[in-house]
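Exercise 7. Given the encoded structure of a 162-residue chain, write a plausible sequence.
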């Protein structure tokens, strides 16, 4: 089943699915859990959001997940599982292909300096989207339907357990 909806930013349209519609993703989004707690990062401009980012040249998508997790949280991953993909179109042009992962964090080290995040927050439960929709401390990227739908997909996943 594919979901289609407007993105969090102007002129964006999103297609979300559990399948891979396009083989080569250029970005990742990570629902990471440390001791059963959801890991959020504080982006220096956007606010609290899920870890993730762009794939670098010559890097596999799995390497991107591992690198982004370390750079944004200081976290080392024990397990990684792809759970979906979404395509972001801006003015009818495909700009991002993001694979969505759920992961289990084995170790959270001190946050590395020099990257785009400046904080880590651990949440005991996956928040309902309405809890942060009007909260300006949360990134606009958390306020589209991707978080809402994927949160439902993963609510009973074993990585979310302590």
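Solution.
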């Amino acid at each position: 089943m594919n979901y289609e909806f407007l993105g969090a930013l102007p002129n964006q349209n999103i297609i979300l699915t559990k399948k891979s519609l396009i083989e080569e993703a250029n970005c990742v989004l990570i629902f990471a859990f440390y001791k059963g707690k959801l890991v959020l990062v504080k982006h220096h401009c956007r606010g609290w959001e899920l870890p993730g980012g762009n794939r670098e040249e010559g890097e596999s998508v799995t390497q991107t997940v591992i690198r982004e997790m370390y750079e944004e949280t200081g976290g080392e991953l024990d397990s990684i599982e792809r759970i979906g993909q979404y395509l972001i179109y801006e003015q009818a042009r495909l700009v991002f292909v993001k694979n969505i992962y759920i992961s289990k964090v084995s170790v959270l080290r001190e946050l590395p300096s020099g990257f785009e995040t400046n904080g880590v927050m651990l949440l005991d439960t996956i928040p309902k989207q309405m809890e942060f929709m009007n909260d300006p401390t949360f990134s606009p990227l958390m306020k589209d339907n991707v978080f809402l739908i994927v949160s439902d997909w993963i609510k009973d996943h074993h990585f979310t357990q302590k």
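Remark. The chain has one domain: 2-155. Students should compare their own answers with the one above.
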